[in-house]
UniProtKB/TrEMBL annotation:
InterPro entries: DUF5110, Gal_mutarotase_sf_dom, GH, Glyco_hydro_31_AS, Glyco_hydro_31_C, Glyco_hydro_31_N_dom, Glyco_hydro_31_TIM, Glyco_hydro_b. One of its GO terms (biological process) is carbohydrate metabolic process. Residues 1-31 form the signal peptide. The keyword S-adenosyl-L-methionine does not apply. This is alpha-glucosidase. Pathway: Glycan metabolism; N-glycan metabolism. It comes from the Eukaryota. The keyword Signal applies.
């Protein structure tokens, strides 16, 4: 939900107030308002650095003015220190830039470059600013949670040639950083081969502090022309100063008290044709180039969290969140960089045919990808990952920024949202209708209208008269409520929340140090500053049950508008010269701002009541590296158009490989009314988003799944049931994400990193490690899809076991009622087949295991289970099984993956699961030899007296046409938390059969 231009609040006073103040600024639009957002050449530092790069590229005689002073270099305990000198004037002054290169245990290297003058505070701020003088050095404090252990085995390479310093690092000494002193640059090598290059093209640029020559200011009156000339004379560098000291955009002026302070660097990936990452953009997974030409953008990718109204498709424009992590991929290698900077950032991408080393053909690609990173302020602080696999990248990035928090089980089920369910009776009615139509759902959401006049922590006394009863009704089927709470606090009388915010002085400040006031949904508002620990503490207090009256244990929270969205601010956000806790300028922390807010909400939900310790659920729109630790995200205000459905898949896949996989797009499209076909197809795609929510704008017609009628309602219900049936597989994928950083839905390259034909594929996905391959329909009128298969394993249709074999594209039927979903051979997929009204009601349901044999006749799979609610799993209260089908021995077995966790909490949990069993085993691609087989033998572990063995009938279905043979064992009765084996083999089964139980 968001953005004001289409807002028609139900209260005429509110409408009037908003219109009166804002209608002169904004006009309702049908597509994104480009003029509301900067292009690179409207953002001073981007324009300067892009121009600089162009000048450098065009010049034949130019040398980069940065040199590492060899006498400054020290190396100790895995860290190199030194000073890079920036030559300002020939033979004269130099700016000193302290350098550290740290080599980490994980094989990752970290390079930081600071500026001595600013670090020491030896600069003057203009306009009597109270801002800090240092370059912002706390991004790591918010983004990083680990992975920083230094690799003490890193060593200087004594054989480095004159003018270079080389450091050997990484396990087994496989990595080497080759540091060139002048001009300063670094090459990162793995196994002797260069993978990542810093400053290859000489675009390194640290805008050192300089005093504004105020003399010029006096002469200003005499004319613009003269001023520029004088400044140039004064500086004698020929640089364009026009954007150094002040910038205006859309009627807002940025006072820039520290002058120009950008940092920029070119980073090249030799031999890599594909780069992925740097969400959030509505673009393809494999990023396009940005300097014009065919199928290319002519603007750099931008990272500056913003409330972009009716965003457009296929664009490098910024969106709501930012993760400055990029990975480059080629056959046999994945590498990457994480640019730890929270200021406005732009990234140019170009590709170059690589002719340098023809001998390397076949190993390396023929294309180099070159990138150019530009941030407005802050440190240069870059992590370099040398892979070599995509799994290494996501794990190492996750070690630094944290893994996805394990959500409650309801959070991965279906969420029903709308702006707005208008009364508590409306909510109860929707809830009843879902039941009437037998449609499963877990969570119903409330957008801003539930509040009294947009005052968060209140309920509208006329429309939400009795929130308690409403939530009690939801709780009957273990359902939840998610109301919205945003960071803007209504600036009004008789509202204790704003009174406290002001009195305790916890709001973001304007450039003069007074509490900043801007406009948002409530009208005049202030913004809680969650960079301030005192603000976080206060925020936590607001969610206590006796403070947020009407909230209940099944209430969870949605944080929207936390970019932050400010209707009358520059680019719909805060002025950059606003001040946060510690007097950091908003400029420095902008992209982190939203994360501090949703994290504070997360913390608040853990402390609502003493003794009630359950996993919180918070949805956020703005995000940064680290947001995965405390929130889920959605892709913001999309539209009910086929193109938006299509774009959602690469966007969600990109979130996955960028460390924030708990993501989804609004099903149905937020703005506009989807056709019944689009709505149906969107549900069929939405069941594959890790975060799965239907949502709609206030001006749209109702579209809950029971609305469209036959056959759409039935088809949507089938899709929802498929999501619920596979919840055990989804939950297991979440567990994997939360322990290894692996994405929940995975693009082709991640599963098949050696398959060069599939690197750019972003319209199909694998669910976790299950081998489930889905290709959602995103085209109107389609009755089939083309699924790309990367390997020579057999793939089977999920529903009828039609087999598809051979690398390449396969046509899979997809009439409206069909969801294209294949199972890759080699996996065992856990399901729960009994349709229920909510996931909570499935808690003790039995399991079905689908064993999909690979070409060798083997299969493997895992299942992770816990109470789905508390943190007890951190003390061992979980079930984690490994299922294997051994084709040679013809045995299916379940083994424990939980090593050494036999705690009291664990035993207690296992007890609650004691009766939960496997009710069905399906073997897809069953061997022909089973045709005449009548029985299998089931053996379950346990104490002597509880050990059980029995024979069961095997039901065999022969292959038919393209449909594979399959077999079923019904009701083996084995317990899900126990070890067991089922013998399908002739010999053993026969032996057991005659020898024992009978
Ligand atoms: C999240 O909140 C905790 C507790 O207040 C705090 O220690 C941590 O720094 C916060 N992290 C972020 C990213 O805001």
């Amino acid at each position: 939900m968001s953005s004001l231009r289409q807002k028609s609040a139900p209260r005429w006073t509110a409408v009037f107030l908003l219109c009166a103040v804002l209608c002169c600024l904004f006009v309702p639009a049908v597509t994104v308002k480009h003029e509301n957002f900067k292009k690179c050449d409207q953002s001073g530092f981007c324009k300067r650095n892009r121009q600089f790069a162009d000048d450098v590229s065009a010049s034949s005689s130019w040398t980069a003015p940065y040199a590492l002073d060899p006498t400054s270099i020290t190396f100790e305990k895995g860290q190199l220190n030194g000073v890079v000198l920036k030559i300002l004037k020939e033979g004269e002054e130099k700016a000193r830039l302290p350098l550290t290169v740290t080599f980490l245990d994980s094989g990752v290297a970290r390079v930081t470059l600071d500026e001595e003058k600013r670090a020491k505070g030896e600069i003057d701020l203009r306009h009597d600013s109270k801002a800090r003088k240092e370059r912002y050095n706390e991004a790591g404090k918010w983004a990083l949670v680990g992975g920083l252990k230094v690799f003490e085995g890193a060593a200087l390479n004594a054989e480095a040639e004159q003018g270079y310093t080389k450091v050997v690092y990484g396990k087994g000494g496989k990595h080497q950083a080759v540091i060139r002193h002048a001009p300063f640059g670094i090459e990162f090598q793995r196994d002797g081969e260069t993978q990542v290059k810093f400053n290859e093209r000489g675009f390194l640029n640290v805008e050192h502090w300089r005093a504004k020559v105020e003399k010029v200011e006096e002469e200003k009156k005499e004319g613009e022309e003269e001023k520029v000339e004088d400044e140039k004379k004064e500086d004698a560098t020929g640089e364009d100063e026009s954007t150094w000291w002040e910038e205006s955009f859309g009627g807002n002026t940025d006072s820039k008290p520290r002058g120009p302070e950008a940092v920029a660097l070119d980073i090249s990936f030799p031999g890599y044709e594909h780069v992925f990452g740097i969400p959030e953009h509505a673009t393809r997974l494999s990023l396009k180039t940005t300097k014009g030409g065919d199928n290319a953008y002519d603007e750099p990718y931008r990272l500056y969290n913003a409330d972009v109204f009716e965003y457009e498709m296929d664009s490098p424009m910024t969106l709501y969140g930012a993760i400055p992590f990029m990975q480059a991929h080629r056959k046999g290698s994945t590498v990457g960089v994480f640019w730890l900077n929270a200021a406005e950032t732009w990234i140019d991408i170009t590709k170059k045919k690589n002719t340098a080393n023809p001998l390397a053909l076949g190993v390396k690609g023929h294309t180099d990808t070159q990138t150019h990173w530009m941030s407005e302020s802050g440190l240069l602080d870059i992590f370099v990952f040398l892979g070599p696999t995509p799994q290494d990248l996501t794990r190492q990035y996750g070690e630094l920024t944290g893994f996805t928090a394990m959500p409650q089980s309801f959070a991965i089920a279906y969420h029903q949202c709308r702006w707005n369910y208008v009364t508590d009776d409306d909510v109860k009615d929707v809830d009843r209708r879902f039941d009437k139509f037998n449609i499963p759902y877990d969570v119903i959401w409330l957008d801003i209208e539930y509040t009294q006049e947009k005052k968060y922590f209140t309920w509208d006394p006329l429309t939400f008269v009795n929130p308690e009863t409403m939530q009690k009704q939801l709780a009957k089927r273990d359902r939840k409520l998610v109301p919205i709470i945003d960071p803007h606090i209504k600036n009004t009388d008789n509202y204790p929340v704003i009174d406290e915010l002001k009195k305790k002085d916890l709001a973001v400040k304007n450039k003069d140090g007074n509490q900043y006031e801007g406009w948002c949904w409530p009208g005049s508002s202030m913004w809680v500053d969650c960079f301030n620990p005192a603000a976080i503490d206060w925020w936590k207090g607001l969610f206590k049950y006796d403070k947020f009256k009407g909230s209940a244990p099944n209430t969870f929270i949605w944080n929207d508008m936390n970019e932050p969205s400010v209707f009358n601010g520059p680019e719909t956000t805060m002025p950059k010269d606003n001040l946060h806790h510690g007097n950091w300028e908003h400029r420095d922390v902008h992209n982190i701002n939203g994360m501090t807010f949703h994290n504070a909400t997360y913390q608040a939900l853990t402390e609502r009541k003493k003794g009630e310790l359950r996993r919180p659920f918070v949805l956020t729109r703005a995000f940064y590296s680290g947001s995965q630790r405390s929130a889920a995200m959605w892709t913001g205000d999309n539209q009910a158009e086929w193109a938006h459905l299509e774009a959602s898949l690469p966007m969600v896949l990109n979130q996955g490989i960028s460390g924030f996989p708990f993501s989804g797009a609004d099903v149905g499209g937020f703005f506009g009314n989807p056709s019944k076909e689009l709505l149906t197809r969107w549900y069929q795609a939405g069941i594959y988003y890790p975060f799965f929510r239907g949502h709609a704008h206030i001006d749209t017609r109702r579209r809950e799944p029971y609305i469209p009628g036959s056959p759409y309602t039935e088809i949507i219900t089938q899709a929802l049931r498929l999501r619920y049936q596979l919840l055990p597989a989804w939950y297991t994928a979440f567990h994997e994400a939360s322990t290894t950083g692996a994405p929940i839905i995975r693009p082709n390259f991640y599963i098949h990193p050696e398959d060069d034909n599939g690197f750019a594929i972003d319209d199909q996905l694998y669910i976790g490690s299950t081998g489930l391959l889905a290709k959602p329909v995103t085209k109107e009128g389609a009755d089939s899809v083309s699924v790309y298969i990367a390997d020579d394993q057999p793939y089977y249709d999920y529903f009828d076991y039609t087999s598809y074999r051979g690398a390449g594209h396969h046509t899979v039927p997809a009439p409206l009622e069909k969801i294209p979903l294949l199972m890759q051979g080699g996996h065992i997929i856990p399901r729960r087949d009994r349709p229920r009204r909510s996931s909570g009601l499935m808690k003790f349901d039995p399991f079905t295991l689908v064993v999909v044999l690979d070409k060798a006749g083997d299969a493997e799979g895992t299942l992770y289970l816990d109470d789905g609610e508390t943190f007890d799993y951190q003390q061992g209260a979980f079930i984690h099984r490994q299922f294997s089908f051994d084709g040679a021995r013809q045995v299916l077995s379940s083994a424990n993956l939980d090593i050494g966790h036999r705690t009291v909490k664990c035993e207690k949990y296992l007890k609650t699961m004691e009766k939960v069993r496997v009710e069905k085993i399906i073997i897809v691609g069953a061997p022909k030899a089973w045709k005449n087989k009548e029985e299998v033998v089931v053996l379950e572990e346990g104490q002597k007296e509880t050990r059980r063995k029995k024979s069961l009938p095997l039901e065999y279905h022969a292959a038919e046409g393209k449909k594979a043979a399959w077999a079923v064992v019904r009701d083996p009765g084995v317990w899900i938390g126990r070890g067991w084996r089922i013998d399908f083999g002739d010999k053993v089964a026969g032996h057991e059969h005659h020898g024992h139980e009978h």
